[in-house]
Amino acid sequence: MTRLPLIAFAAAAVGLFAPAGAALAQSPSDSAVTLTFETGARTGAVMVALYDSEAGYAGDRPVGGRRLDVAAGEHTVTFEGLPAGDYAAKAFHDVNGDGEMNTNPFGMPVEPYAFSNNAVGNMGPASWERARFAVSGPTAQTISIR
C-alpha cells in the first residue's frame, strides 16, 4: 500500500507517539489541547499529529503525535505544556491496524482522515488557515473522522 503524502506524518512522527496522557513539553504551561475523535468504526487506532506552525503543518513536522487505541475505547488525547499560539491537527483512523494510511491505486485514501476544526481540503489536505485554532489555556475540540 502507498502512503498519502498529506498524512505522511504518521511515518515521520512514529517516534513521537506516546501514551495518550503524556506531556508534550517539559516546561510548565497552562495551555493544553484536548482532542476527542468521533469514529465510525471501533477497530484499529487513530493516529494524530499536532502542529504549531504553517511551515510545520505543510512540511509534516509535528510538535507532537499520539496513537489512540480505538479498539480499547480510547477516543481522547491531551497535549499538555503548550505555549500559547496557533495549532492545527491532522489525524487518520487506521481501521485495519497496519500502521499506515491505506490508499487506492490512484493515491486516494481508503481509510478515514480528518483535520482540526473539521476542516476540509480541496483535492488535498485542509489548509493551515482552515485547520488552525488559537490556544491560550485549556482548549478542546471534537473531530469527526470520515
Topology diagram in text:
Blueprint: H1 9-12, E1 17-18, E2 31-38, E3 45-51, H2 54-58, E4 64-69, E5 76-82, E6 85-94, E7 113-115, H3 128-131, E8 133-135, E9 138-144
Parallel strand pairs: 1-4, 2-9
Antiparallel strand pairs: 2-5, 3-4, 3-6, 6-7, 6-8
Which descriptors would you attach to this protein?
single chain; 146 residues; mainly beta; six-stranded mixed β-sheet; three-stranded mixed β-sheet; 9 strands; disordered N terminus
Q: How many DSSP helices?
A: 3
- Please count the beta strands (DSSP E, at least 2 residues each): 9
Largest sheet: 6 strands, mixed
Please state the overall shape, judged from the principal axes of the Cα atoms: globular
Relative helix content: under 10%
Write a concise synopsis of the structure shown.
The chain is mainly beta and 146 residues long. It contains 3 helices and 9 strands, in the order H-E-E-E-H-E-E-E-E-H-E-E.
Describe the structure.
This protein has helices spanning 9-12, 54-58, 128-131, and strands at residues 17-18, 31-38, 45-51, 64-69, 76-82, 85-94, 113-115, 133-135, 138-144. The protein has 146 residues and is mainly beta. The strands form two sheets. Strands 1, 3, 4, 6, 7 and 8 form a six-stranded mixed β-sheet that branches. Strands 5-2-9 form a three-stranded mixed β-sheet, with no helix packed on it. The two termini are 20 Å apart. Residues 1-28 have low confidence and may be disordered.
